[in-house]
Design goal:
By secondary structure, the protein is α+β, with helices and mostly antiparallel strands. Helix content is 25%, strand content 43%. It has a single domain (2-148), classed as START domain (Alpha-D-Glucose-1,6-Bisphosphate, Chain A, domain 4). The chain is built from three helices and eight strands.
Length: 150
């Protein structure tokens, strides 16, 4: 996985051992998303997604210890299986949280999927770091699920 940051914008790249049509389903179908979403140790007990421009989503994240919390947003672009753009906001925000935009671009390469993620702009370096760690863990979990064929 490669990472680049400019200002308070997160950029990550990863390669997954699966066709990009399958990876796109893992990003947009609730039953697939809950298998990998969130940082290490977190689960996603509830996911509602309407992946179409103007459609919304809401995810419940459960940390290993503590109360569940939620994130939600709206799909801005949905171009299966190549591109997904959506807003991202915490429903129980901290003072440094602001709504950001996530852009996921997928490309097929010899049976693999190259995925590029951009998210921003964050209010602080600390919020950027939190999301960098979360996405890094989540993309690692996604790669494990894809490898296991689940």
């Amino acid at each position: 996985m490669n990472e680049r940051s400019s200002g308070h914008t997160l950029e990550l790249e990863s390669v997954l051992e699966a066709p990009y049509e399958r990876v796109f389903r893992m990003l947009t179908e609730p039953a697939e998303l809950v298998k990998w979403w969130g940082p290490a140790g977190f689960t996603t007990p509830e996911a509602t997604l309407d992946p179409r421009p103007g459609g919304s989503y809401r995810l419940t994240m459960q940390p290993p210890d503590g109360e569940p919390f939620h994130l939600a947003g709206e799909f801005l672009e949905v171009d299966p299986p190549r591109r997904l753009v959506y807003t991202f906001r915490w429903e129980e925000p901290t003072p440094d949280d602001r709504e950001t935009t996530v852009i996921l671009s997928l490309a097929a390469r010899a049976g693999q999927t190259w995925i590029a993620l951009t998210q921003g702009e964050f209010a602080t370096e600390e919020r950027l770091a939190l999301h960098r760690d979360g996405w890094t863990d989540a993309l690692g979990k996604l790669a494990e699920v894809v490898r296991a064929g689940a």
